[in-house]
Amino acid sequence: MKTGISVIVPVWNRANLIKRCLDSILNQSEKPEEIIVVDNNSTDKTASVVEEWINENQDSGISLKLLKEEKAGACFARQKGLENATGEYVIFFDSDDEMKSTLIENVNEALAKSPESDIVCWKCRIHLLDGGKRIPPFMADKPLEAHLIHTLLRPQGHAVRKDFLNNAGGWKKPAKVWDDFELGLRLLLNNPKITPINKVLAEIYAQEVSITGTDFSSKEGEWEEILWEMERVVADRDDANVSKVGSKKRIAKILDYRKAILAAHYYRERNKASSKKLMKEVLKDKSIYQSLVLRFSYYYTRSGFRGAWRIVSWFI
What we know:
- By secondary structure, the chain is of the alpha/beta class.
- 44% of the residues lie in helices and 16% in strands.
- The protein contains 13 helices and nine strands.
- Strands 1, 2, 3, 4, 5, 6, 7, 8 and 9 form a nine-stranded mixed β-sheet that branches.
- α10 packs parallel to α12.
- The N and C termini lie far apart (42 Å).
């Protein structure tokens, strides 16, 4: 079974990297229905590089499109691609990353076995700036926890049924950071049928210049706004709907944990005033038990250790 899949690639100033990404999509063992590149006001030669690439591959048998989105922000570029996609499923793939050659084939195989799937997800390998590599914990059997802690539904890590995504609101938030984090929660709150693929099918390359950047302090306030927006999203849902993926109380606790970790990163970046301010907010009106868990997470991460969630998850 081959299901129509549209691959949407938002791009901004990636003239030196975009061809690597597009070649990895074009050279799939099974081809997608279309590749849509959305240029988001690039100031380098990105658009001309993409145009040249499209001209060179017109006989590929795949629909190749280059669109423009003047509103700055990956969410706007992704939404533009979504509105122009013709496939039943969509994959949003970042312009500096690579697909493994069997990604589309594996997705088609998963959909042949579970055609009712709303989301198909897979593992990703992250190449860090220091040369290290890591594969985030997958835990597809615990999608809410996996997403809120490890961003299970990162753009390069899943395909989603287009109608399901539209029903969840699409890329509606003009977020400058963590837009995929917020959207993933909305998708999960709509109770999707998720089919996991236990393979690494995408290579993600960290970049010095990127939307999220290499530190947290330079975009202070933007991370918090997304976490507050996620709290509002949950608060607006009825309890019966939320209970299908987890309780409102548990989601709130996990988001508080994320705030404590963010505060710890601020401290490590010598942004001590902001760290203190955020932790004061996080601990407000918390029980002694909750405060102990959040303080441990904060100090553990502030000291340079990773993986606080493995320890505190039993208590949240």
